[in-house]
């Protein structure tokens, strides 16, 4: 693997992407060990990365066909090949790059990953006579195998495959089997392993132990990646990148931008100016609350800009959610460009972009991983913006961002706030965004938040909010016929927002919220509760 001018590293503050945005360049001042996960499109791919990071080992998920010249990691300890929906014998099936086969780094293939590894090395994969979807029991046939070290000979696992390996590559041996998969795990003398099941899911109880054995005993990882080590490394990189130049930070009031701003401020001090933009798309009392909180807890230069009219004008007659996101992203940048004129020569802008933003906004060249939606701060940025991006949290999950926030000494009420989307209420209004609809939604959303906090479950939920649908329904209020809006309630639990489950709120609480909204917001006469998990739905409606 070679280094290029456009490179990333394990704690990267900038990253090459498919747009023409100018990216800040920096030297790799430190290279932590990391595990590379090649994504073949499995619904569990991101979970592999999470499980590895939970073991204090840095990991990143990249498309299987990533250009190795864009990888500058000089301390990759292992490569993991994810599962995927394709069959290796299909013409259009994702392949295994030659540079992976040529490496002497330990490899673990999971499900499709095992099949493509075996096929490329001379094995045979065929449609299974008996497919396995769900719980299965594997029998390990060698206690000496490091992969199953200190584990029982019989292990419950989660299978999800319609193909199976029927002929081994040379130098490989079978190290586990199940009732329907005579070859459930394989290994060779070069520390290349394949398993037909998914160790990353909760349905494989000893899955983390299997990953531990691979990462620590086989790949010899040390497990020294922590929030404190991240902070130390990223501050050094920011200083090296920025030097003596001035920087602005797009401050939203959420945990991501707060942590990003604090990291950059620790690195460069008064060279940083934070800009908080009132874009008309915020919740009730949000502008005043954000300004007050940041001026109380953070000694950072803060500008408060009123751009409500600019955003509302740009969003007129726009109903498509992707268009909304892109318009909002571009309008933010134009506002920041205008404000920066009063601050002198500004080359850098800080954003609180996180890993889920990047993953959901990107797709691999192969199409194995599809774009879910454009995040305004990733794919929604204008191509002609002159700022270079500094994104210190780009490779972190939300819970990891919160750990960094605590490490930096930020107050818990700031660190553990429920996430609020960058495009704000615009993507919680189905259809065109108007001042009237924003007013309706603010009132309803405030009631939801008020009752969630009164019930003392605010911190138990990942997010809880109202959505103003574009549906109107007939109602009866005060013996009069009404034709009002339908509000949807959305409350979910999650660890990292890559997957989520709808929250099982008490009926009494749902009843109280519903009653208050239809009584206190006259334009609304019906409330529904969204009981969709992610997947198949996303957390936000747009």
Description:
- The protein has 542 residues and is an alpha/beta fold.
- It folds into three domains: 34-218, 3-Layer(aba) Sandwich (Rossmann fold); 227-415, Rossmann fold; 429-529, GMP Synthetase, Chain A, domain 3 (2-Layer Sandwich).
- Helices cover 30% and strands 24% of the residues.
- The chain is built from 14 helices and 18 strands.
- Strands 2-1-3-4-9-8-7-5-6 form a nine-stranded mixed β-sheet, sandwiched between helices. It has a five-stranded parallel β-sheet with strand order 12-11-10-13-14, with helices on both faces. Strands 15, 16, 17 and 18 form a four-stranded mixed β-sheet that branches.
- Strand 15 and strand 16 form a beta hairpin.
- The model is unreliable at 1-30 and 363-379 (pLDDT under 50).
In brief:
30% of the residues lie in helices and 24% in strands. The protein has helices at residues 45-54, 98-102, 112-120, 207-218, 227-242, 255-268, 286-297, 308-314, 321-340, 355-361, 398-407, 412-415, 435-454, 507-520; strands at 34-39, 58-63, 76-81, 107-110, 124-140, 154-167, 173-178, 185-187, 192-195, 246-251, 272-278, 301-306, 346-350, 388-390, 463-477, 480-493, 501-502, 524-529.
List strands and helices in order, with pairings:
Elements: E1 34-39, H1 45-54, E2 58-63, E3 76-81, H2 98-102, E4 107-110, H3 112-120, E5 124-140, E6 154-167, E7 173-178, E8 185-187, E9 192-195, H4 207-218, H5 227-242, E10 246-251, H6 255-268, E11 272-278, H7 286-297, E12 301-306, H8 308-314, H9 321-340, E13 346-350, H10 355-361, E14 388-390, H11 398-407, H12 412-415, H13 435-454, E15 463-477, E16 480-493, E17 501-502, H14 507-520, E18 524-529
Parallel strand pairs: 1-2, 1-3, 3-4, 4-9, 10-11, 10-13, 11-12, 13-14, 16-18
Antiparallel strand pairs: 5-6, 5-7, 7-8, 8-9, 15-16, 16-17
Helix pairs in contact: 5-6, 5-11, 6-11, 13-14
């Amino acid at each position: 693997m070679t280094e290029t001018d456009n490179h990333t590293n394990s704690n990267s503050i900038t990253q090459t992407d498919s747009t023409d945005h100018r990216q800040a360049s920096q030297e790799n001042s430190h290279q932590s060990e990391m595990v590379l996960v090649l994504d073949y499109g499995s619904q569990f791919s991101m979970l592999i990365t999470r499980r590895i990071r939970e073991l204090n080992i840095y990991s990143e998920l990249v498309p299987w066909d990533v250009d190795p010249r864009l990888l500058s990691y000089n301390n990759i300890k292992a490569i993991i090949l994810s599962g995927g929906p394709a069959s290796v014998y299909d013409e259009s099936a994702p392949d295994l790059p030659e540079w992976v086969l040529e490496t002497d780094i330990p490899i673990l293939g999971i499900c499709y990953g095992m099949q493509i590894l075996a096929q490329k090395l001379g094995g045979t994969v065929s449609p299974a006579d008996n497919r396995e979807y769900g719980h299965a029991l594997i029998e390990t046939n060698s206690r000496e195998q490091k992969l199953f070290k200190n584990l029982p000979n019989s292990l419950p696992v989660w299978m999800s495959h319609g193909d199976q390996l029927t002929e081994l590559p040379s130098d490989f041996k079978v190290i586990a089997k199940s009732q329907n998969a005579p070859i459930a795990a394989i290994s060779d003398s070069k520390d290349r392993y394949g398993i037909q099941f998914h160790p990353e899911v909760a349905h494989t109880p000893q899955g983390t132990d299997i990953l531990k054995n691979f990462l620590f005993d086989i790949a010899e990882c040390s497990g020294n990646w922590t929030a404190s080590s991240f902070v130390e490394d990223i501050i050094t990189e920011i200083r090296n990148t920025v030097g003596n130049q001035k920087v602005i930070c797009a401050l939203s009031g959420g945990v991501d931008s707060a942590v990003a701003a604090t990291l950059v401020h620790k690195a460069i001090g008064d060279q940083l100016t934070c800009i908080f933009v009132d874009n008309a798309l915020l919740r009730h009392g949000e502008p005043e609350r954000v300004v007050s909180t940041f001026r109380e807890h953070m000694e950072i230069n803060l500008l408060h800009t009123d751009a409500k009219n600019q955003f509302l004008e740009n969003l007129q007659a726009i109903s498509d959610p992707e268009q909304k996101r892109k318009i909002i992203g571009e309008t933010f940048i134009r506002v920041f460009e205008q404000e920066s004129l009063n601050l002198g020569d500004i080359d850098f802008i800080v954003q609180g972009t996180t890993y889920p933003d990047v993953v959901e906004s990107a797709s691999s060249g192969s199409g194995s991983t599809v774009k879910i939606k454009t995040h305004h701060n990733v794919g929604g940025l204008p191509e002609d913006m002159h700022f270079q991006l500094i994104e210190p949290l780009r490779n972190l999950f939300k819970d990891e961002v919160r750990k960094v926030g605590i490490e930096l000494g930020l107050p818990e009420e700031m660190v553990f706030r429920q996430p609020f989307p960058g495009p704000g209420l615009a993507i919680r209004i189905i259809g065109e965004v108007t001042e009237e609809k924003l007013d309706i939604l603010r009132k309803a959303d405030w009631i939801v938040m008020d009752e969630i906090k009164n019930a003392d479950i605010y911190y138990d939920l990942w997010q809880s909010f109202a959505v103003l649908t574009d549906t109107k329904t007939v109602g009866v209020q005060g013996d009069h016929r009404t034709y009002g809006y339908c509000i949807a309630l959305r409350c979910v639990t999650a660890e990292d927002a890559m997957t989520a489950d709808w929250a099982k709120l008490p009926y009494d609480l749902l009843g109280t919220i519903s009653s208050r909204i239809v009584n206190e917001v006259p334009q609304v006469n019906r409330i529904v509760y969204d009981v969709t998990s992610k997947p198949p739905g996303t957390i936000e409606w747009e």
